[in-house]
Structures are given as C-alpha cells and as structure tokens.
Amino acid sequence: MPALAKVVGNANQLQYYPASAQVAQLNATVLSAETFAQKEVAREQLLKYALQPESLDALWTLVQERIADNPECARFTNATLFAHSKNTKLEFMDNSLTSAYGRWEQCWARVADPQFCSRDRTYVDIGKQ
Where are the alpha helices (DSSP H) in 19-52? Predict the structure, then answer.
C-alpha cells in the first residue's frame, strides 16, 4: 500500500484503493461474509483493483526495491507480475481460432511494451467454446 500511495499520488485515484493492508483484509472478510462466496480460506476473499498503466512501471520498480531491501520479504525475490484479462471472449470471438488469436495479438501489441514482456514467460490461455 505505501508503494501505491507513493507512485499514484492522485487523491482521485487513491480513494478507490484500501488505505492499509489491514483495511484490505477487513474488506475481504466483510465481502466474503456478505456474499457467502466459496473460497479456500474461510471468511476471506481476494480483492482486485485496477491500476492505471502509466503508474505500473514505477510501482513495480518500487515494489521490487522494497522486496530487495527487506529481509522479511525474501520469499518474494524474483517475483513475477501477473496480468490477466478474464471474460473477454466476445471481444475477440471470430470464425477461426487463427483469426481470434490475431485479433487478440493486435490488441496486446497496442497495450503491452515488449521491453517489459518476456516471450518465454508470457502465456496465452485460449478457451474454445
């Protein structure tokens, strides 16, 4: 949370993120209790927050620095940033798998900077309907 507040710095955006890890934990517990959602850990649910792309590089760099500087975070060394795009099949649906993948690849090329993406660590999971 401190890295996010330092990098984003815009109160209009920060108001949508939890103020602390404790607040995020409480939000997860409350949401779980209210929705009766099934999850691995009782009474807890993972929360997700969208990040603006212009903040991502600085935020990820700061997170990696904090991991390197804090011995208690040693288990997170060499962490990988995970991005996903769920429930987008209607955006890329086409008559053939080749065409659908081509449409997805065009979109990916517009939003992803190859400098930050390693081809050997990038996976595309395509589900057929």
Answer: 21-35
